[in-house]
Amino acid sequence: MIEQLRGRLILIETETITVDVQGVGYLIYCGNPYRFQEWMDEEITVYTCQHVREDAIRLYGFRYREERRLFEKMLQVSGIGPKGALAIATSEQPGNIVEAIESENEKFLVKFPGVGKKTARQMILDLQGKLGDLLPGLQDHPKTRSDAEPMPVDRSTSAHPELDEAMEALKALGYVERELNRVKPILKQEDLSTDAYIRRALQELLKL
């Protein structure tokens, strides 16, 4: 297993970064590749997890070891695959995720892409009491929020409920209001599903 890679960041795309390690470019899947943008063309360390399926072998990358460990724990939950585990582990509030599992706060957990009430309950059943050793490191994460309760989306009055859901999912991936407010007017002109809005937003964010 590749524990970490240290090299020059040479490319950022909507789902991946490429790190040049002594002339070899490693394609690494990240929850929010743009969080690495300030290190473009500089040497960085990325902590990695190699995930093998029948049809693919992928490297997933993290800024912190604790994020990687949380990712590995999430993969143990029935109903959560690498994509969902990545979004959760690299969110703005990884420490709050542990607290939500311990306090059985399903309302907080279902804000993440692909996590419904059934999966949130499974996360609690499978992981409650097993993540305590991760909490100190995750709480030191520079993007951890002090408030674990998400702002509710009023789907009864919103003209774009799918867009609102996409915005919440992007916030969970680490994007901030300032970035999202720049692309939201563009997205409002289209009528898409939540997943399609997310993909479209990522395309526009890459242009920024």
TrEMBL record:
Domain Helix-hairpin-helix DNA-binding motif class per the UniProt entry, residue ranges: 72-91, 107-126
UniProt subcellular location: Cytoplasm
Residue ranges of the region described as Disordered: 137-158
GO biological process: DNA recombination; DNA repair
GO molecular function: ATP binding; four-way junction DNA binding; four-way junction helicase activity
Segments of this protein annotated with the region Domain III: 159-208
GO cellular component terms, semicolon-separated: cytoplasm; Holliday junction helicase complex; Holliday junction resolvase complex
Pfam families: HHH_5 (PF14520), RuvA_C (PF07499), RuvA_N (PF01330)
Coiled coil (residue ranges): none
Highest taxon listed in the record's lineage: Bacteria
Keywords: ATP-binding, Cytoplasm, DNA damage, DNA recombination, DNA repair, DNA-binding, Helicase, Hydrolase, Nucleotide-binding
Entry's free-text remark on domains: Has three domains with a flexible linker between the domains II and III and assumes an 'L' shape. Domain III is highly mobile and contacts RuvB.
Family (UniProt): Belongs to the RuvA family.
Assembly and interaction partners: Homotetramer. Forms an RuvA(8)-RuvB(12)-Holliday junction (HJ) complex. HJ DNA is sandwiched between 2 RuvA tetramers; dsDNA enters through RuvA and exits via RuvB. An RuvB hexamer assembles on each DNA strand where it exits the tetramer. Each RuvB hexamer is contacted by two RuvA subunits (via domain III) on 2 adjacent RuvB subunits; this complex drives branch migration. In the full resolvosome a probable DNA-RuvA(4)-RuvB(12)-RuvC(2) complex forms which resolves the HJ.
Function summary: The RuvA-RuvB-RuvC complex processes Holliday junction (HJ) DNA during genetic recombination and DNA repair, while the RuvA-RuvB complex plays an important role in the rescue of blocked DNA replication forks via replication fork reversal (RFR). RuvA specifically binds to HJ cruciform DNA, conferring on it an open structure. The RuvB hexamer acts as an ATP-dependent pump, pulling dsDNA into and through the RuvAB complex. HJ branch migration allows RuvC to scan DNA until it finds its consensus sequence, where it cleaves and resolves the cruciform DNA.
Full protein name: Holliday junction branch migration complex subunit RuvA
Native source species: Salisediminibacterium beveridgei
Gene name of the record: ruvA
